[in-house]
Amino acid sequence: MKLWGDGSETGEAVLDAFNASIGFDRALFREDIAGSIAHSRMLVKQGIISGEDAAAIENGLRQIEGEIEGGEFVFASEDEDIHMAIERRLTALIGEAGKRLHTARSRNDQVALDFRLWCVRQDRHLADLIAELVSALYGIALKHTETLMPGMTHLQHAQPISLAYHLLAYMAMLMRDHSRLLESAKRANLSPLGSAALAGTPHPIDRAFVADELGFDGVTLNGLDSVSDRDFALELLFNTAMAMMHLSRFCEELVLWSSAEFRFVRIGDRFTTGSSIMPQKRNPDAAELIRGKTGRVYGGLMGLLTVMKGMPLAYNKDMQEDKEGVFDAVKTLSDSLTILADMLQDEGTVFNREAMRAACERGHLSATDLADAAVKKGVPFREAHHLSRKATALADQKGVDLSMLKAEDLALIDPRLGELVGALSLEASMNARVSAGGTAKRAVLEQLSFVENWIKSVCSIKPS
Ligand code: ARG
Questions:
Q1: Where are the domains of the chain?
Q2: C-alpha dihedral over 289, 294, 300, 303, to 10 degrees?
Q3: 372 and 417 in contact (C-beta within 8 Å)?
Q4: Which of 24, 287, 374, 406 is surrounded by the most beta carbons within 10 Å?
Q5: pLDDT tens-digit profile of 14-59?
Q6: Per CATH, is 359-453 categorized as 1.10.40.30?
Q7: What is the atom index within ligand 1 of the atom nearest the CA of 323?
Q8: 116: CA distance to ligand 1 center in Å?
Q9: What is the rounded CA–CA span in Å between residue 407 and residue 268?
Q10: What atom in ligand 1 is closest to the CA of residue 197?
Q11: Is the CB of residue 21 below 6 angstroms from any atom belonging to ligand 1?
Q12: Percent of the chain scoring above 70 in pLDDT
């Protein structure tokens, strides 16, 4: 007799839903089916199941894959997770043989396999999208090697740089993100299948064969670790969080630059929205959302680190909590990369050369250059610094930028300064910094050619 009547039924439903992962792990169906096909081919090769059973299993699994892809697959209420859903359907389709598939396997190594395959694929997919964003930035930078803008520290005008130089900073970050993702993929690319529940299996399996069938580079070392290791998912999350941090910094700049205070960029209409009350508003929503969504990705990383930290070996049900944060982080970065590349390449997105140049004419950006030029003429540095300070004071007095002063103005301060007027030009200032990684057009073109070669090299090794 049920003590709580309907209430207890509701309780059971809540508990079943609480226990189940089918609501989200169905995203792993392709990996689950590929893993099962490889496993069944191994079982027949090793004489563990018959050729007829293996053929029936493979055909059945292909049919199920089609059903899920086509949206015809009916998930049953008792399907706790994707592994059980597929096995239930397989057994319904082919009978006895379906029940032999799980020989020498456990859901513990099965889920470890599926999730690893998925993460490796996403590591590579995200790396590809990052390479596409780098090439978008490269294309824009090529057009702006002479577009002056103020380089800043402390958000204060510091020295004149070019827009190309500024964009190259982001290309450098993204190229590191790319290499981190591919290194993680490489480290993760080992098959855990055959670890079974935690301790391996007495059946004469061939783990290397399965690994090879699935495109892994080899097999994991230890079963206990293999079923409870989620480092590969954490690396993917960290890499994703780092890349989002980079995108967020860039988007923050786009938000600032599109404001009336800066006017360095006009963002294409598709990526901005108006206000319901202020008709003139062009809110940079897409950039703000990329910046904002960085939070949920950090949350995913912190969430999974916390899930894993107190767990005794080996598999614990806690680990079912490993997936949603990773799925969400990958989708967030994937969408953000696509949208940002699209936004930058949109016809309506225009960098405002005049506004950037005008900004360079505020803040006496060439003060260091005047001092450096005086030093080159033999003036001791302390004195040169002092003279340059006097020149900026004179510019302030006249209400102009230092770069506007004439030779006569400088000569009034000190006769030696008159001939140094050329050092005040903003272009000269930018082009003077010829050191490797510097702002001079020559140095910027070298950096761009490095990026060009990088793009060619990553495109030619494009992983499948
Ligand atoms: N749904 C489970 C997960 O996502 C699959 C593994 C279940 N294994 C087990 N022994 N309960 O982690």
A1: 13-103, 108-358, 359-453
A2: -120
A3: no
A4: 287
A5: 999 999 999 999 999 999 999 999 999 999 999 999 999 999 999 9
A6: yes
A7: 4
A8: 14
A9: 43
A10: 10
A11: yes
A12: 97
Q: CA triplet 382, 385, 386: central angle to 5 degrees?
A: 85
Rounded CA-CA distance 73/90 in Å is 12
- How many C-beta neighbours within 10 Å does residue 277 have? 6
> What does 119-139 look like in DSSP terms, one character per residue?
HHHHHHHHHHHHHHHHHHHHH
CATH of 108-358 given 3.40.50.1970, 3.40.630.30, 1.10.8.10, 1.20.200.10: 1.20.200.10
CATH architecture of the domain with residue range 13-103 = Orthogonal Bundle (1.10)
Query: End-to-end distance of the chain based on CA atoms, in angstroms?
Result: 58
Is residue 117 within 8 Å of 124, Cβ to Cβ? no
Phi, psi at 366, each rounded to 5°: -100, 15
β-pair type (350-351, 265-266): antiparallel
Cα 361–Cα 365–Cα 369 angle in degrees, nearest 5: 130
| Nearest in space to 265 (alpha carbons), one of 396, 359, 361, 160 | 359
Q: Kindly report the pTM of this predicted structure.
A: 0.94
What is the 21 CA–ligand 1 centroid distance (Å)?
8
